[in-house]
Amino acid sequence: MMASTRVQPVNDAKDPVPRSDTDLNSPQMPLIYGGLIAGAILLIYLLNTQAPAQPLLLVLGLGLGYTLFHARFGFTSAFRRFMSVGNGQALRSHMLMLGIAVTLFAPILAFGISFFYGPVNGYVSPVGVSLVVGAFMFGIGMQLGGGCASGTLYAVGGGRSVMFITLLFFMGATVGAAHLPFWTEDLPSFEPISLATSTGLGYGGAWILSIALFALIAWVSLVIEKKRKSPKMAPVPSTTGWKRIFRGSWPLFAAAIALAVLNALTLMTRGAPWGITSAFALWGSKAAQFFGMDVAGWGYWQGANAAALQSSIFADSTTVLNFGVILGAFLASAAGGLFKFSRVTGKNAAASVIGGLLMGYGARLAFGCNIGAYFGGIASFSLHGYIWGILAMAGTFVALYLRPLFGLSVPKPKDTFC
């Protein structure tokens, strides 16, 4: 009988998955106290130095990171499992998340609902060569780098050592920012297309169309599963009752709901959906500026983006969200007794370098990552979000043939997913 391979539910993390109450590791209380103290210090700093939205965004980021880690909710292995063996269980959780998101986003965008009475805009971006190339690059990169943008942040929070390398080279977004005018101005591109405002459907009609598309994708994934007889994800036992909020694994549907709600709250708080990779471009550009490069002269840092380059990184809402995600994942991993640094090898380090660069560069070309373009774009009724998903899937397919070169596994039809 062929032995099966044990794979994490939704990402590439190597941390043990709790099987029952007795299998749970003890909470790492010193780490929890340290994380809470760090979070409190950062929160107090933001309250005293930044705009009122920033402390709230830190809290929302904490919630996002906590949710991502507890459910191991990601995009990288969800795409990989679907492309390799036809398992679409995690992909269907994406459809649930998107369905709730568009339901919440529609009235917020239609009526400009905001906590701070500022403008509210979704992520609606152009469709052109830049998007196609960038999303395809990102699809390859996330399969080599071991995680997407959100997966990188929460894996770092959980202590997965190789992901620190991915995060460092994710600042390839800086190079993408420098080259962006070439991709967007010198190559063919269409104007941004919103299903709600560019088609005459309005937000009500766009919502109906979106829900129909999500249902169709979920149905197609079920048909493919049946046709390919793909292996199912085995249930992951966890704690029960209120304890499950803090320890053990969350079901994917619960995380899908939580992430959609938190993204809607983010939209109302900062006037834009959840995003990740623009902060990487900012961090890398500030570092380049420190070493004497004329970053301010780049086209990317003209106009609306210019103020961010001249301000503190703590004034950047995406940066604050990112810090919150990392800290939230750290607290979640410590609560489950799972935080520990993992081993780094030459091969997985090389894959992380290449993957990080591809994702960083690709995210800028594609106007976002799996969060800003795929999640945020589709939730904002933007056509570019759907195209991003298709091209990232295509990049994933190519990466299935590249992963073994770096000693990375690829799911096989007889593997058991737990």
Automatic annotation (TrEMBL):
Pfam families assigned to the protein according to its UniProt record, in alphabetical order: Sulf_transp
Record keywords, A-Z: Cell inner membrane, Cell membrane, Membrane, Transmembrane, Transmembrane helix, Transport
Spans traversing the lipid bilayer: 29-47, 53-75, 96-117, 162-183, 203-224, 245-265, 320-339, 351-375, 381-402
Location, primary (coarse class): membrane
Compartment(s): Cell inner membrane
Membrane topology note: Multi-pass membrane protein
Sequence ranges of Basic and acidic residues compositional bias: 12-22
Domain of life: Bacteria
Classification via InterPro entries: Sulf_transp_TsuA/YedE
Chain spans, region Disordered: 1-23
A GO cellular component entry from the record: plasma membrane
Family in the record: Belongs to the TsuA/YedE (TC 9.B.102) family.
Name used for this protein in its record: YeeE/YedE family protein
